[in-house]
Amino acid sequence: PPGRKVLIVYAHQEPKSLNGSLKSVAVEELSKQGCSVTVSDLYAMQFEPRATRNDIVGCLHNSEEFNYGVETWKAYKRGGLSSDLIEEQKKVQEADLLIFQFPLYWFSMPAIMKGWMDRVLVQGFAHEFPNCYDSGLLKNKLALFSFTTGGSREMYAKGGISGDIRYLLWPMQHGIMHFCGVRVLAPHICFAPEYVSEEKRKEMLTAWAQRLKTLWKEEPINCSPEWYFK
Asked: 46 in helix, strand or coil?
């Protein structure tokens, strides 16, 4: 609906890739609905994935022994995080929906996107024990993981060689997003695009565009171990 804000965190090197096209389709479709859409194109931004001392501006809380979690938490509270992190946190703060668009690497997200999670979702900003899971600090937001795989749908079935695709979603959807209070929409998965016809790939893009038309009517998944492991 008009006025909704969407952040697409996108990790692919090639704009002409299927991931690039999926991202463009989302920008186009959601903009058409009157949403305001922001894209963090991590490779184009040369986003820094490493969690280091450089993420803290000014003096450290404890200069004797560096503890990244403690230092970024303290820095966040005093407004002393590096500008790239402040920028991303502002985008997250304003968004109603976060879409993560990426190719699956080794049953997970590419390192550059994992680095975004590691560095942006700081304690104090995204979570602060006991404010986690249902009471995480990013509640009232939605997230959706949209990704491509190398393996086929059969390989990622419950009895398949790679196991149920939902097993891999547990650390990403549950351990990161739900931990921060975000409610998760069903993932959007394009299986093995490299091994199908051009026509099939076009169908994948059309299916994504179709889904986006009614996305705001969708209910989040049941954020519990049952969804993943039953």
From this structure: coil
Cα–Cα separations (whole angstroms), residue 19 to 80, 111, 205, 217: 34, 16, 10, 24
Bridge partner list, 102: 147
- DSSP letter string over 85-145? HHHHHHHHHH-SEEEEEEE-BTTB--HHHHHHHHHHS-BTTTBBTTB-GGG-TTTT-EEEE
Measured distance CA(190)–CA(204) in Å, rounded: 7
Task: Catalogue the long-range contacts made by 133-136 (C-beta closer than 8 Å, 24 or more residues apart).
Answer: 133/178, 133/179, 133/181, 133/223, 134/181, 134/223, 135/181, 136/178, 136/179, 136/180, 136/181, 136/182
Instruction: Indicate the pTM of the whole model.
Output: 0.97
User: What is the gyration radius of the CA atoms in the chain, in angstroms?
Assistant: 18
Question: Among residues 175, 173, 193, which one has the least CA distance to residue 183?
Answer: 173
| Residue in this structure with the two tokens 């700081």, named with its chain if needed | 122
Structure tokens at 116: 């975004």
**How far, in Å, CA of 199 to CA of 190, rounded?**
14
Helix 111-120 and helix 83-94: axis angle, to 10°? 90
Average pLDDT over residues 98-126: 98
Percent of the chain with pLDDT over 90: 98
Give per-residue pLDDT as tens, 38-71: 999 999 999 999 999 999 999 999 999 999 999 9
